[in-house]
Amino acid sequence: MDLDILFLNGNNKSSTKSLILKSLIHNQNLSNARLQAIIRKEFNKKISYQAIRQALIELSKAGILEKQDKNYFISHNWFSKLKYELNLIEKSFYKKDSIKSINKETTQINLKNLYELGHFILYSLEQNYFDVSKTNQTYMKLSHLWIPFADQDKRERLKQLMGNNKIQVLVENKTSLDLMLSKWYKKFVNVKFIRFNDSACDYIIHKDIVVQIYFNQKLKSKMDRFYGLKGLASLNIFSELSDMTYEKNNIEIIIIRNKEVAKTYKKEFVSQWSKK
Predict the structure, then answer these.
(1) pLDDT exceeding 70 applies to what percent of the chain?
(2) What is the DSSP string of the chain?
(3) What is the CATH number of domain 3-74?
Protein backbone atom coordinates (compact mmCIF):
# COMPACT_ATOMS: atom_id res chain seq x y z
CA MET A 1 0.00 0.00 0.00
CA ASP A 2 1.39 3.41 -1.01
CA LEU A 3 0.79 5.78 1.86
CA ASP A 4 2.57 8.56 -0.08
CA ILE A 5 -0.47 8.65 -2.33
CA LEU A 6 -2.29 10.51 0.45
CA PHE A 7 0.13 13.41 0.34
CA LEU A 8 0.25 16.02 -2.38
CA ASN A 9 3.80 16.63 -3.50
CA GLY A 10 5.47 18.44 -6.33
CA ASN A 11 5.31 15.86 -9.10
CA ASN A 12 2.31 15.82 -11.42
CA LYS A 13 1.86 12.05 -11.28
CA SER A 14 1.20 11.94 -7.55
CA SER A 15 -0.83 15.13 -7.77
CA THR A 16 -3.18 13.56 -10.30
CA LYS A 17 -3.66 10.46 -8.15
CA SER A 18 -4.28 12.53 -5.04
CA LEU A 19 -6.88 14.64 -6.86
CA ILE A 20 -8.58 11.47 -8.11
CA LEU A 21 -8.78 10.13 -4.56
CA LYS A 22 -10.13 13.43 -3.23
CA SER A 23 -12.76 13.50 -5.97
CA LEU A 24 -13.83 9.91 -5.24
CA ILE A 25 -14.06 10.56 -1.49
CA HIS A 26 -16.72 13.20 -2.16
CA ASN A 27 -18.48 11.49 -5.08
CA GLN A 28 -18.10 7.76 -4.33
CA ASN A 29 -17.82 6.56 -7.95
CA LEU A 30 -16.90 8.40 -11.13
CA SER A 31 -16.00 7.76 -14.74
CA ASN A 32 -12.82 9.09 -16.34
CA ALA A 33 -14.74 11.88 -18.07
CA ARG A 34 -16.55 12.92 -14.87
CA LEU A 35 -13.24 12.93 -12.98
CA GLN A 36 -11.71 15.20 -15.59
CA ALA A 37 -14.62 17.64 -15.30
CA ILE A 38 -14.61 17.63 -11.47
CA ILE A 39 -10.85 18.11 -11.21
CA ARG A 40 -11.07 21.05 -13.61
CA LYS A 41 -14.03 22.63 -11.81
CA GLU A 42 -13.24 21.88 -8.14
CA PHE A 43 -9.44 22.00 -8.16
CA ASN A 44 -8.82 24.29 -11.13
CA LYS A 45 -6.51 21.71 -12.73
CA LYS A 46 -6.51 20.94 -16.43
CA ILE A 47 -5.45 17.30 -16.72
CA SER A 48 -5.82 15.35 -19.94
CA TYR A 49 -8.14 12.37 -20.30
CA GLN A 50 -5.13 10.12 -21.04
CA ALA A 51 -3.23 11.30 -17.93
CA ILE A 52 -6.25 10.55 -15.74
CA ARG A 53 -6.71 7.18 -17.45
CA GLN A 54 -3.08 6.23 -16.76
CA ALA A 55 -3.40 7.27 -13.11
CA LEU A 56 -6.63 5.24 -12.80
CA ILE A 57 -4.91 2.17 -14.25
CA GLU A 58 -2.00 2.48 -11.81
CA LEU A 59 -4.33 3.02 -8.84
CA SER A 60 -6.35 -0.04 -9.86
CA LYS A 61 -3.24 -2.21 -10.24
CA ALA A 62 -2.16 -1.11 -6.76
CA GLY A 63 -5.52 -2.30 -5.39
CA ILE A 64 -6.52 1.21 -4.32
CA LEU A 65 -9.40 1.53 -6.80
CA GLU A 66 -11.95 -0.88 -8.22
CA LYS A 67 -13.98 -0.52 -11.40
CA GLN A 68 -17.59 -1.37 -12.21
CA ASP A 69 -18.76 -0.70 -15.75
CA LYS A 70 -17.12 2.68 -16.55
CA ASN A 71 -17.02 3.97 -12.98
CA TYR A 72 -14.14 3.82 -10.50
CA PHE A 73 -14.48 3.74 -6.71
CA ILE A 74 -12.15 3.39 -3.71
CA SER A 75 -11.55 -0.25 -2.75
CA HIS A 76 -13.02 -1.28 0.60
CA ASN A 77 -10.10 -3.72 1.04
CA TRP A 78 -7.54 -0.94 0.55
CA PHE A 79 -9.40 1.33 2.93
CA SER A 80 -9.41 -1.37 5.62
CA LYS A 81 -5.66 -1.91 5.20
CA LEU A 82 -5.11 1.84 5.32
CA LYS A 83 -6.99 2.14 8.61
CA TYR A 84 -4.89 -0.65 10.11
CA GLU A 85 -1.61 0.85 8.92
CA LEU A 86 -2.54 4.30 10.19
CA ASN A 87 -3.34 2.72 13.55
CA LEU A 88 0.16 1.23 13.65
CA ILE A 89 1.65 4.62 12.77
CA GLU A 90 -0.39 6.22 15.55
CA LYS A 91 0.92 3.66 18.01
CA SER A 92 4.50 4.22 16.95
CA PHE A 93 4.11 8.00 17.46
CA TYR A 94 1.98 8.17 20.57
CA LYS A 95 2.45 4.84 22.32
CA LYS A 96 6.13 4.10 22.12
CA ASP A 97 5.72 1.07 24.38
CA SER A 98 3.35 -0.72 21.94
CA ILE A 99 6.08 -1.66 19.43
CA LYS A 100 9.63 -2.29 20.59
CA SER A 101 12.71 -3.50 18.75
CA ILE A 102 14.45 -5.56 21.41
CA ASN A 103 17.37 -6.33 19.10
CA LYS A 104 17.96 -6.81 15.36
CA GLU A 105 16.29 -10.26 15.51
CA THR A 106 13.42 -9.58 17.91
CA THR A 107 10.39 -7.28 17.91
CA GLN A 108 7.78 -7.01 20.64
CA ILE A 109 4.25 -5.80 19.93
CA ASN A 110 1.50 -5.23 22.51
CA LEU A 111 -2.10 -5.53 21.36
CA LYS A 112 -5.11 -4.75 23.51
CA ASN A 113 -7.60 -7.47 22.50
CA LEU A 114 -8.52 -10.34 20.17
CA TYR A 115 -9.98 -7.88 17.66
CA GLU A 116 -6.56 -6.28 17.17
CA LEU A 117 -4.91 -9.71 17.00
CA GLY A 118 -7.21 -10.80 14.15
CA HIS A 119 -6.34 -7.69 12.15
CA PHE A 120 -2.65 -8.07 12.91
CA ILE A 121 -2.64 -11.61 11.48
CA LEU A 122 -4.75 -10.72 8.43
CA TYR A 123 -2.70 -7.64 7.64
CA SER A 124 0.62 -9.44 8.17
CA LEU A 125 -0.39 -12.18 5.74
CA GLU A 126 -1.67 -9.71 3.14
CA GLN A 127 1.48 -7.60 3.31
CA ASN A 128 3.71 -10.71 3.12
CA TYR A 129 5.34 -9.97 6.47
CA PHE A 130 5.57 -13.74 6.89
CA ASP A 131 6.65 -14.18 3.24
CA VAL A 132 3.98 -16.86 2.83
CA SER A 133 3.88 -18.66 -0.51
CA LYS A 134 2.95 -22.05 -1.87
CA THR A 135 6.61 -23.03 -1.95
CA ASN A 136 7.00 -22.59 1.81
CA GLN A 137 5.22 -24.38 4.64
CA THR A 138 3.59 -22.42 7.46
CA TYR A 139 3.04 -24.02 10.86
CA MET A 140 0.62 -22.80 13.52
CA LYS A 141 0.11 -24.06 17.08
CA LEU A 142 -3.03 -22.68 18.73
CA SER A 143 -4.63 -23.27 22.11
CA HIS A 144 -8.02 -22.79 20.38
CA LEU A 145 -8.95 -22.26 16.75
CA TRP A 146 -9.52 -18.56 16.23
CA ILE A 147 -13.08 -17.49 15.46
CA PRO A 148 -13.17 -16.05 11.90
CA PHE A 149 -14.15 -12.43 11.28
CA ALA A 150 -17.85 -11.61 11.50
CA ASP A 151 -17.28 -9.14 8.64
CA GLN A 152 -17.81 -11.06 5.40
CA ASP A 153 -15.25 -9.08 3.44
CA LYS A 154 -12.46 -9.79 5.95
CA ARG A 155 -13.53 -13.43 6.18
CA GLU A 156 -13.30 -13.81 2.40
CA ARG A 157 -9.84 -12.22 2.39
CA LEU A 158 -8.73 -14.64 5.11
CA LYS A 159 -10.15 -17.63 3.22
CA GLN A 160 -8.28 -16.60 0.07
CA LEU A 161 -4.99 -16.24 1.94
CA MET A 162 -5.35 -19.59 3.68
CA GLY A 163 -6.48 -21.38 0.54
CA ASN A 164 -3.48 -20.12 -1.45
CA ASN A 165 -0.88 -21.38 1.03
CA LYS A 166 0.40 -24.54 2.66
CA ILE A 167 -0.64 -24.26 6.29
CA GLN A 168 -0.67 -26.88 9.04
CA VAL A 169 -2.47 -26.09 12.30
CA LEU A 170 -2.10 -27.98 15.58
CA VAL A 171 -4.86 -27.28 18.10
CA GLU A 172 -4.26 -27.93 21.77
CA ASN A 173 -7.88 -28.09 22.96
CA LYS A 174 -10.65 -30.22 21.49
CA THR A 175 -13.80 -28.50 22.71
CA SER A 176 -17.17 -28.62 20.94
CA LEU A 177 -16.57 -25.13 19.53
CA ASP A 178 -13.06 -26.05 18.32
CA LEU A 179 -14.53 -29.07 16.54
CA MET A 180 -17.23 -26.91 14.98
CA LEU A 181 -14.69 -24.34 13.78
CA SER A 182 -12.41 -27.07 12.42
CA LYS A 183 -15.06 -27.95 9.82
CA TRP A 184 -14.66 -24.45 8.39
CA TYR A 185 -10.86 -24.35 8.67
CA LYS A 186 -10.37 -27.78 7.08
CA LYS A 187 -11.69 -26.40 3.80
CA PHE A 188 -8.51 -24.30 3.54
CA VAL A 189 -5.81 -25.71 5.85
CA ASN A 190 -4.71 -28.94 7.51
CA VAL A 191 -5.94 -29.17 11.12
CA LYS A 192 -4.99 -31.68 13.79
CA PHE A 193 -5.92 -31.85 17.48
CA ILE A 194 -3.22 -32.87 19.95
CA ARG A 195 -2.31 -32.18 23.56
CA PHE A 196 0.94 -30.32 24.20
CA ASN A 197 2.99 -31.09 27.30
CA ASP A 198 4.03 -27.48 27.84
CA SER A 199 2.25 -24.77 25.90
CA ALA A 200 3.19 -21.28 27.07
CA CYS A 201 1.96 -19.51 23.92
CA ASP A 202 0.39 -19.85 20.51
CA TYR A 203 2.89 -19.58 17.69
CA ILE A 204 3.31 -19.30 13.94
CA ILE A 205 6.44 -20.52 12.15
CA HIS A 206 7.36 -19.59 8.61
CA LYS A 207 10.82 -20.00 7.13
CA ASP A 208 13.18 -18.40 9.69
CA ILE A 209 10.48 -16.43 11.51
CA VAL A 210 8.70 -17.43 14.73
CA VAL A 211 5.74 -15.36 15.93
CA GLN A 212 4.92 -16.09 19.57
CA ILE A 213 1.50 -14.99 20.85
CA TYR A 214 1.01 -14.69 24.61
CA PHE A 215 -2.47 -14.26 26.12
CA ASN A 216 -2.80 -13.04 29.68
CA GLN A 217 -4.36 -15.46 32.17
CA LYS A 218 -7.65 -13.57 32.33
CA LEU A 219 -8.18 -13.87 28.58
CA LYS A 220 -7.04 -17.51 28.48
CA SER A 221 -9.55 -18.39 31.20
CA LYS A 222 -12.32 -16.51 29.39
CA MET A 223 -11.52 -18.32 26.13
CA ASP A 224 -11.42 -21.73 27.83
CA ARG A 225 -14.79 -21.02 29.43
CA PHE A 226 -16.39 -19.77 26.21
CA TYR A 227 -15.08 -22.59 24.03
CA GLY A 228 -16.15 -25.15 26.62
CA LEU A 229 -19.73 -23.88 26.99
CA LYS A 230 -22.47 -26.45 26.52
CA GLY A 231 -25.72 -25.61 24.79
CA LEU A 232 -24.38 -22.43 23.16
CA ALA A 233 -27.70 -21.71 21.48
CA SER A 234 -29.47 -21.24 24.80
CA LEU A 235 -27.02 -18.58 26.01
CA ASN A 236 -26.39 -14.99 24.97
CA ILE A 237 -23.55 -16.13 22.73
CA PHE A 238 -23.18 -12.80 20.93
CA SER A 239 -22.75 -10.88 24.16
CA GLU A 240 -20.20 -13.42 25.44
CA LEU A 241 -18.30 -13.37 22.15
CA SER A 242 -18.32 -9.57 21.98
CA ASP A 243 -16.92 -9.28 25.50
CA MET A 244 -14.20 -11.82 24.76
CA THR A 245 -13.27 -10.11 21.45
CA TYR A 246 -13.31 -6.43 22.39
CA GLU A 247 -12.62 -6.33 26.12
CA LYS A 248 -9.20 -4.92 26.93
CA ASN A 249 -6.79 -7.80 27.52
CA ASN A 250 -3.08 -7.49 26.97
CA ILE A 251 -1.80 -9.75 24.17
CA GLU A 252 1.95 -9.78 23.72
CA ILE A 253 3.50 -10.76 20.39
CA ILE A 254 7.18 -11.59 20.07
CA ILE A 255 8.53 -11.83 16.51
CA ILE A 256 11.84 -13.69 16.31
CA ARG A 257 13.86 -13.78 13.09
CA ASN A 258 16.38 -16.51 13.82
CA LYS A 259 17.11 -19.63 11.79
CA GLU A 260 18.12 -21.80 14.75
CA VAL A 261 15.11 -20.80 16.86
CA ALA A 262 12.76 -21.49 13.95
CA LYS A 263 14.47 -24.86 13.39
CA THR A 264 13.86 -25.86 17.03
CA TYR A 265 10.19 -24.88 16.85
CA LYS A 266 9.72 -26.73 13.55
CA LYS A 267 11.28 -29.87 15.01
CA GLU A 268 8.86 -29.81 17.94
CA PHE A 269 5.91 -29.10 15.64
CA VAL A 270 6.71 -31.92 13.20
CA SER A 271 7.22 -34.32 16.12
CA GLN A 272 3.80 -33.45 17.55
CA TRP A 273 2.14 -33.56 14.12
CA SER A 274 3.44 -37.09 13.43
CA LYS A 275 1.89 -38.49 16.62
CA LYS A 276 -1.24 -40.55 16.18
Answers:
(1) 79
(2) --GGGGS--SSHHHHHHHHHHHHHHHHSEE-HHHHHHHHHHHH-----HHHHHHHHHHHHHTTSEEEETTEEEE-HHHHHHHHHHHHHHHHHHH-TTTEEEEETTEEEEEESSHHHHHHHHHHHHHTTTT---TTSEEEEEESSPPPPPSSHHHHHHHHHHHHTSEEEEEES---HHHHHHHHHHTTTSEEEE---S---SEEEEETTEEEEEEE-HHHHHHHHHHHT-S-GGGS-HHHHHHHHHHS---EEEEEEE-HHHHHHHHHHHHHHHT--
(3) 1.10.10.10
